[in-house]
Amino acid sequence: QVQLVESGGGLVQAGGSLRLSCAASGRTFSTLAMGWFRQVPGKERDVVAAINWSGSRTYYVDSVKGRFVISRDNRKNTVYLQMNSLEPEDTAVYYCAAKGAFPSSSYYYTRTDYNYWGQGTQVTVSS
After folding, report:
1. CB–CB of 6/118 below 8 Å?
2. Does pLDDT of 27 surpass 90?
3. Rounded to whole angstroms, how far apart are CA atoms 96 and 101?
């Protein structure tokens, strides 16, 4: 089992920045591929960014490329999502997800690939 706890959400004005963190426990973090997803009411949970177990490969949905950065610190068992130039359209609940992946170097960007989920953190961007 893997437990995931997100933090760092909040209210920010358009153009501002936030950094989300996701702390993992219960399994060797460096064996996990990680992802960030987001969901708005009435819509599906969609991928925002993903990273492989070593941090050497990353994926971003087109709408956040150049604005968001996913990273991880395997010594701290934590994955981050740095969000810059935030837009009202980024408003959503953001979820951290994990999948056992080692030794594969793949990242995963499909919701059904992931086995473990955090509880979510609200990000609200005002115009």
Report:
1. yes
2. no
3. 16
